[in-house]
Amino acid sequence: MTDLIQLASQPTVWAALATLIVMEVVLGVDNLIFISILTNKLPTDRQARARRIGIGLALVLRLGLLGTVAFIVHLTEPVFSVLGQDFSWRDLILIGGGLFLLWKATKEIHHSVDPEPETEESGGTLGFGAAIGQILLLDLVFSIDSIITAVGMTEHVPVMMVAVVVAVIVMLVAAEPLSAFIARNPTVVMLALGFLIMIGMTLIADGFGAHVPKGYIYTAMAFSAGVEGLNMLARRRRRGAKGRGQGQGHGQGHGHDRGQAPAGQAGRA
Q1: Contact between 36 and 182 (Cβ < 8 Å)
Q2: Residue 142 CB neighbour total at 10 angstroms
Q3: What are the C-alpha distances in Å from 66 to residues 5, 15, 78, 213, 258?
Q4: What secondary structure, in 3-state letters, does 209-250 show?
Q5: What is the SS3 assignment for 88?
C-alpha cells in the first residue's frame, strides 16, 4: 500500500499513466473494429452478449499477461534464425495474427461483393462459438502487442494495470455505438475491412523485423475515415435535396389541380 501511495505522489508516474492510457485506447481500436464487424454477423439477440464477452476476454488476457511480465519480456528474445533474420515468439505470434487478419478481412470483403445470396455453407452466417473463438485469437495477438508496448513505456505494473482497465472500459462503452454505426453504413464496413488488411500487413511486417511506426498507420486510418465521413455527408445532403424536390413537385401538382377546379366549375355554370 505504501508503494502505491509513493507512486501516486510522483508527477512523472501520472504523466506516464496518461500517455499509456492514450496509447492503450488507440491500440484497442484495432481490436474493437474486429469485434464489431465479427459480432454484427451474429443474430441480433446475441450481438451485444458476444461483444461483452469478447471485450471481457481482452481485459482478462491483458491483466493475465501483466501478471507474467517477465515471461512477456522473454518473448522478444530470438528463438531461431532464417537467412540471418532472427525470430522470437512475439514475432511468430504477430505474423500468425497478421495472416489471420488478412484471411478474415479478405473473406469478409468477398462476402460483401459476392452477388450470390449468402448461405451458411458459404460462410454467410457465423456461429456464436466460432465468433468467440476468433475474437479470443485476435484478443491474444492484440493483448501481447499492447502489453509489450506498455512494458516499454513504464516499469510500474500498477500503472500498466490501471491503463489497461481504463482502455478496456472505453472499448466497452464504445462497442455498441461503433457496431450500430457500422451496421447502419455498409460503406463503412468495407473501409473497416480495409483497415484490418492494413493492420494485418503491419503485424506481419513487424514480425519480420520491419517496424512501421504506429503514427503512420493511425494517420492513414484517420484520413480515410475523414474522407468517408465527407462522402456520407454528401450522400445525406443529396438525399435530403432529392426529398425536398419531390415534396415541392407534389405540392405544386396539388396546387395546380386546386386552381383548375373552380375554372371548370365556372365553365359548367
Answers
A1: yes
A2: 24
A3: 20, 20, 21, 24, 77
A4: CCCCCHHHHHHHHHHHHHHHHHHHHHHHHHHHHHHHHHHHHH
A5: strand
- Which cell goes with 151? 512494458
Residues of the chain predicted below pLDDT 70: 1-11, 13, 69-70, 72-73, 115-126, 149, 151-155, 247-269
Residue 42 per-residue DSSP state: S
Q: Please count the other Cβ atoms lying within 10 Å of the Cβ belonging to residue 89.
A: 16
Q: How far is CA 220 from the centre of its chain?
A: 14
pLDDT at 185: 77
Supply the pLDDT for residue 160: 78
Sign of the CA dihedral 189, 195, 201, 204?
A: negative
- Each domain of the chain, given as residue ranges in start order, spans 2-212, 213-258
Asked whether the whole model's pTM tops 0.85, one would answer no
Task: Say which residues have a Cβ less than 8 Å from residue 206's Cβ, sequence separation at least 6.
Answer: 91, 94, 98, 212
Alpha helices by DSSP H, 89-185: 89-113, 128-153, 157-184
State the burial class of residue 203 (Cβ atoms within 10 Å of its Cβ: 0-12, 13-18, 19+). buried
**78: which strand partners?**
88
pLDDT at res. 123: 43
